[in-house]
Amino acid sequence: MNRNANARNAPPRAGAMLEALRGLGYTTAAALADIVDNSISAGATEVLINFSWNDTSSSVSVLDNGCGMDDAELESAMRLGDISPLEKRDRTDLGRFGMGLKTASFSQCRRLTVASVKNGATSCLRWDLDALAASPEAGWLLFEGPSPGSETLLAPISQIKLGTLVLWEILDRIVTKGYVANDFNDLIDRVESHFAMVFHRLIQDPNARLKILLNGKRIMPWDPFLTGHAAKTWDSPIARTTTESGIVEVECHVLPHRDKLSPAEFDAGGGPEGWTAQQGIYIYRNERLLVAGGWLGLGQGRAWNREEAYRLARIRLDIPNTADAEWKIDIRKSTAKPPVSMRLWLTRLAEDTRERARKVFAYRGSPTPVSGGGTVEQAWRIERSRTGARYKIDEKHPVVSAVLDGAGELLPMVKAMLRVVEETVPVQRIWLDTAENKETPQTGFVGEPSEKVVAVLKTIYADMIGRRGMSPANAKKMLAVTEPFQNYPGLVAGLQDEPA
Ligand SMILES: Nc1ncnc2c1ncn2[C@@H]1O[C@H](COP(=O)(O)OP(=O)(O)OP(=O)(O)O)[C@@H](O)[C@H]1O
Ligand SMILES: [Mg+2]
Fold first, then answer.
1. How much distance in Å is there from the Cα of 9 to the middle of ligand 2?
2. Residue 137's Cα: distance from chain center in Å?
3. Contact of 310 with 237, CB cutoff 8 Å
C-alpha cells in the first residue's frame, strides 16, 4: 500500500513494457553495435560475433574477453533502468542510458541470454518475452541459466576465464516469413560494413587494441577520410572549441577526385551508402562513430542537403561522453545534434569545406589556385547578371590572345567563331550527363596520354618564345599557371629551352 495519500504506485507491466521497447527502430547492425559497445567499455580486446543460421532457430552471439560481471553485476546489467543516464560515466565508457543491452537485443529477438565469467565463477541470466507473455501476472521474471535445449549455444563461455557472452535467440524480427539463408548472408555483409565504419578508429592499425571477428573473419576498418592517401586533396588544421560539457574537435577533409583514385579505391571510398550519402559530418564519441555524414540541419537559410557536388566533403567531429545531453545522443547511438551555441562555428567550417569540395568536384581534382598561392589563367569566364550566367572565352588566356594577335584580317572571323562557340556551349547536355553519370564530363586532358598534352604545350610555348619574345623560363612560368596546364607541372617543366 502506498503511504502517500496523494500518489499511487504505478509500475509498468513487464511483458507489455518489454514488447513496447522493441520498437525503438534499431537496424540489426546498429543493435549489434550497441552490444559490442558494451564489450569495448568492458575493456575487451577481442570480440567474436557469430551468426548461426538454422531457420527459425537461428541465433546471434557476441563473446568478449572484457572484464566480465559477477552475479550481482549481471543482474544489474539485465535490469532495465538500473543506472540513470544522469550518472557520471567513466571517460571511455560508450554507454549512457543503462538500456542498450536490453533495448538493442529485444529489437531483434525474443530471448536474451547473457552469461559472464568473473573471479572464476560463471553467471547466466535470461529474459524470455514468450515466457513473460504466457504469465502476465508474474512480473519482471528474470530466468537463471540458458533456455532448456540452448546449452550448447552458451558453451563458448566455459572456454574463457574472463568475459561475457550475449546470445540472441528467436530472431522474430530478422527471420520473418520467406527469409532464407541468403538473406542471412546479406545481413552479415551489412553488419560487416556497418562495423567497419562505426568502429574504424578502434580497429584501425594492424596492432589495434581491439579485434572484431565476424563468423571468424576479422573486420577491417573503413576510414571515411582516406587518411594518408597520396592524392588527398585537403585536410584542415584541427579546430577546437571548449564548452561547459567538454572539448569538441573538428577536422575537415576534402577527398580526392575520382580521377585520382583507382576504380577499387573509388568503390571502397564510397562506403556503405555511396559517395553522395556519405558526405558531411561524422560525429564520434570516444572514437566510436555515431553519425555517418549528413549536414545536421546546418546551412544558411535553407538546410543543406546531401548533393552530388559536395560529395567529397567529409568532416570529423569528436565529442566527449560528458556532452551526451548537450548533443542529444539517443539510446540507439545513431543520432546526435549540435547544440545551438555551436551551430555558427560549425556552419562556417562546413561552408568552407563544402566550397573546396565543390571546386574539386567541378574541376576534376584541380581547384583553381596553384602551389605558391597565385591564380590560374582561366580559359573561360563566367559573367553573372540578373538574368543568369553566361560563359565567355577569356581573351586574356595565352592561346586565345596569341590567335587574336596573329589573326590579322581574319580577326573579325575569329571573334565571330569564338562568339559562336560561347553561344553554343552544350550546357543542357553537360548538365544532363553530369546528373546521369554522377560525374562531370572529362576536361583538362584527363585520361589523355601525355604526348597529346605535350603537343599542344609545345605549340603555345613556341609562340611565346618566338612571336612574343618571352624567355623560356618566363614562358614556362606562365604555362604553369595557365589552364589546363597547371595540372601538368611536370610536362611544363620538361619543355626544352630551345623549342623545336
Ligand atoms: N559485455 C559486457 N561486459 C561487462 N559488462 C557489461 C557488458 N555488457 C553490459 N555490461 C554492464 O551492463 C550495464 C548495462 O548495459 P547496457 O548496455 O544496458 O547500458 P549501458 O551500456 O550502461 O548504457 P547504454 O544504454 O547507453 O548502452 C553496463 O553499464 C555494464 O556495466
Ligand atoms: Mg550499452
1. 28
2. 46
3. no
CA of 208 to the centre of ligand 1 (A): 23
- Which of 24, 32, 101, 331 for mutating ligand 1's site (highest number of atoms within 8 Å of CB)? 101
Indicate the SS3 state at residue 218.
Answer: strand
**Entry pTM:** 0.79
Tell me the C-alpha distance between 149 and 165, whole Å.
Answer: 17
Residues 208, 214, 219, 222, Cα dihedral to 10°: -130
> How many of the other CB atoms lie within 10 Å of CB of 165?
25
Instruction: Give residue 177 CA to ligand 2 midpoint distance, Å.
Output: 30
In whole angstroms, what is the distance from residue 464 CA to residue 421 CA?
25
Q: How much distance in Å is there from the Cα of 222 to the middle of ligand 2?
A: 23
Distance from Cα 18 to the centre of ligand 1, integer Å? 17
Measured from the alpha carbon of residue 79, the closest ligand is 1
| Ligand 1 lining (C-beta closer than 6 Å) | 34, 38-39, 42, 64, 66-67, 69, 77, 83, 95-102, 164, 331
For the CA atoms of 21, 27, 32, 36, the dihedral, rounded to the nearest 10 degrees, stands at -90
Pull the grid cell for residue 250: 573538428
Please name the residue whose Cα sits nearest to atom 7 of ligand 1.
38
Helix (H) or strand (E) holding 457: helix 450-466
CA distances from residue 410 to 398, 405, 413, 420, 466 in whole angstroms, order as listed? 18, 10, 5, 15, 21
Reported as a single tens digit per residue, the pLDDT across 408-462 is 999 999 999 999 999 999 888 888 888 787 777 888 888 889 999 999 999 999 9
For the chain, domains (ranges, CATH) are: 16-218 (3.30.565.10), 234-362 (3.30.230), 380-493 (no CATH)
Residue nearest to atom 22 of ligand 1 (CA): 98
Please report the pLDDT score of residue 367 as a whole number.
47
Query: If residue 393 lies in a helix (H) or strand (E), which one and from where to where?
Result: strand 388-393
For 101, 164, 177, 300, 339, the CA distances from 97, given in Å and listed in that order, are 10, 20, 33, 34, 20
Radius of gyration of the chain (CA): 31
Tell the residue nearest (CA) to atom 11 of ligand 1: 77
- pLDDT tens for 188-211 read 999 999 999 999 999 997 777 899
Task: Determine if residue 383 is left, alpha or beta; phi over 0 gives left, psi from -120 to 50 gives alpha, anything else beta.
Answer: beta
**Ligand 1 atom closest to the CA of 102, numbered from 1:** 18
